[in-house]
Design goal:
The protein is α/β, with parallel strands linked by helices. Helices cover 37% and strands 16% of the residues. The strands form four sheets. Strands 5-8-9-12-13-14-15-16 form an eight-stranded parallel beta barrel, surrounded by nine helices. Strands 1-4 form a two-stranded antiparallel sheet. A two-stranded antiparallel sheet has the order 2-3. Helix 7 (205-216) links the parallel strand 8 and strand 9. It is elongated and about 95 Å long.
């Protein structure tokens, strides 16, 4: 039985003739009454007036479905008013405490928050933060080769062949609801230069890949990276002067051409990750001037000079040839500075503000969430990914549970979207697929 069925006690309340009449004449929810069984039904009802009803419990099994008597609502109500109340399962006994449990008076608490956590259904009802595959942006590494090359420091991640492996990976992601990707190219050393001119080659790796993906999946949301480090022979996000200084305005000029080239290929969102001053406004003006008013800008607003980026630089072979990136990326010790960057990016026309890295900077995500009306993105970077993977391999943590908890924490802190290498794995988990 799927639910409890209320019945009259057949042994005590039902005359044999009436039972036969009910068996032979039951149609839908009410019995068919004819002249031959009208008398038997009347006798049955009379016999039941002084008898109680009982309940067949949901857990009980029966060889054949239990049929209703066909009483009207008014007759059922009349039986209850007359004191013929149906029986229900008894109140379960209070569970016993273990031996030795002290007997104490109840604490005089007006509020007990645990009441809202006592069952899975209640916990689900009051869950404040949710996560779905639609919240993920899948970072994908691409290269000119045809084979997918494993990235040693990032287990499960590959440099994907742009014509083959990439399309297969995007198809897998779309199957589980991840329809946004961000592209990072591994550029041949022979195409790198001090000024990164390859960044705005309309037939370069990234524009070709965008055109291929849009041809295959027109509704795919494609984010791109706007920065010179993959194209620079120096490995920096900007043009480097001979004394080692990163040139700001000259770099912004190159970034504008790069963003326009990506938009021309079909990019939906361009993402300046360089941290040059004024680049958001300049890119917005350049896009609008070329007719790309509908292309969005996701600014790397608070990108910190973090030690969590190591595996990513191996993936792109883009480590700086000298120096470091602390003159343009933010100091990890700074909090208020993120507000300065956010205010500038908002005023210059950014559509989305991004915080990078993710989990170590939850306070910055929450700061921008509270201060800005714009969507907030978080980048769960390669170091975060690799640590969880390594902990799982060593059986120190439950990889899947830690993965999902870390993503939920980013959402709870205020991230609307999360750039994560776990996008495919996490989406499969959310969709109920086995690992």
């Amino acid at each position: 039985m799927a639910a409890a069925s209320t019945m009259f006690n057949g042994g005590a309340c039902m005359a044999p003739a009436a039972a036969a009449a009910m068996k032979n004449n039951h149609v839908a929810l009410r019995p068919t009454v004819n002249n031959s069984n009208r008398r038997d039904l009347a006798l049955m009802k009379k016999a039941c007036r002084n008898k109680r009803l009982f309940v067949v419990r949901a857990g009980e099994s029966h060889d054949s479905p239990i049929k209703k008597l066909g009483l009207s609502d008014a007759e059922c109500e009349a039986a209850v008013v007359a004191g013929n109340i149906p029986e229900a399962p008894p109140v379960p006994p209070k569970p016993a405490s273990p031996a030795g449990t002290p007997v104490v008076p109840s604490l005089p608490l007006s509020r007990r928050p645990r009441r809202n956590r006592k069952s899975p259904a209640l916990r689900a009802s009051f869950q404040e933060t949710s996560i779905s595959p639609a919240n993920f942006v899948y970072p994908l590494f691409i290269h000119e080769g045809e084979e997918d090359t494993p990235i040693g420091a990032m287990p499960g991640c590959y440099r994907l062949g742009w014509r083959h492996g990439l399309l297969q990976e995007v198809a897998k992601a779309r199957d589980v609801g991840v329809n946004s990707v961000v592209l990072f190219p591994k550029v041949p050393d022979g195409l790198k230069s001090p000024t990164g001119d390859e960044a705005y080659n309309d037939n370069g790796l990234v524009p070709r890949t965008i055109r291929l993906l849009k041809d295959k999946y027109p509704d795919l949301v494609i984010y791109t990276d706007v920065a010179l480090d993959p194209y620079s022979s120096d490995g920096h996000d900007g043009i480097v002067r001979e004394d080692g200084v990163i040139m700001n305005d000259e770099t912004v000029h190159q970034l504008c051409k790069q963003a326009v080239s990506q938009a021309r290929a079909g990019a939906d969102v361009v993402s300046p990750s360089d941290m040059m001053d004024g680049r958001v406004g300049a890119i917005r003006a350049a896009l609008d001037a070329e007719g790309f008013q509908n292309v969005s800008i996701m600014s790397y607003t608070a990108k910190y000079a973090s030690s969590f980026y190591g595996p990513f630089r191996e993936a792109l072979d883009s480590n700086p040839r000298f120096g470091d990136k602390k003159t343009y990326q933010m100091n990890p010790a700074n909090y208020r500075e993120a507000l300065v960057e956010a205010q500038e990016d908002e005023s210059e026309g950014a559509d989305i503000l991004l915080v990078k890295p993710g989990l170590p900077y939850l306070d910055i995500i929450r700061l921008l969430r509270d201060k800005s009306p714009l969507p907030i993105a978080a980048y769960q970077v390669s170091g975060e990914y690799s640590m969880i993977k390594a902990g799982g391999v060593l059986k120190m943590i439950d990889e899947e549970r830690v993965m999902m908890e870390s993503l939920m924490c980013l959402r709870r802190a205020g991230a609307d979207i999360i750039l994560t290498y776990f996008a495919l794995q996490a989406a499969r988990c959310l969709c109920g697929e086995k690992r």
